[in-house]
Amino acid sequence: MSPALFSLLFLGCFLIGLLFFVRFLCAPFSEKIRAQMSEHRLLHWIWGGFALFTAFVLFIFLNPSVWPLAWWERRAQRAIVVQRVQSAGGWDSLKRDCVALAEHCKSELAWQWYAGNTNILPAAVAALQPRRVEYYPPKHWPHFNDSNFPVVRITIFGAHSTGGHEIPWLGLDVLCDRSGTDYQPRRQRSETPLRYWRYRKVSDDIYEFF
Fold this sequence. Notes:
It is built from six helices and six strands, in the order H-H-H-H-H-E-H-E-E-E-E-E. It has two domains: 3-62; 70-209, no CATH class. Helices cover 44% and strands 17% of the residues. It is of the alpha+beta class. The chain has a six-stranded antiparallel sheet.
């Protein structure tokens, strides 16, 4: 659907909804309108439901803290992540570079990188344009890595906002060993506000958290 056609349809829906609200507000002062609403109740119920739906859609589009919807935005984020992974050589390249990073950091209790100079990151990891990269050895505090394998955690999207639009969190956990079983962590790290995270397998030993 072209933007022009969508705009026309939305304008038409808005006008239909507006007409109902005007009619509803005038009903207490017009015996004729009250009689018509009583005679054609089903029609007015449908009309009222359509008007409420239009008002809801308008609220969604005009409220910056609601739009875009989280599931809509997450779908776009996933497409961007796949595109960036492919540009870096695919999932195998990402796994290989994360294993190399884990091997380099294995003597440390934990390692973290925040948005800045990506030259210190392996090429496939840097290609994801991450906001944060973390390495956690096995069993490194239950809320960071409760698995038996070293994990490289790559946060790609996400931002908390106290007043505006919150960007949904999305990133990748890469198990830097062949696990042989599905990775089922209890929860992601603590953030503000505290939230429980969900996981989705996207490739061998690579899981999306969101």
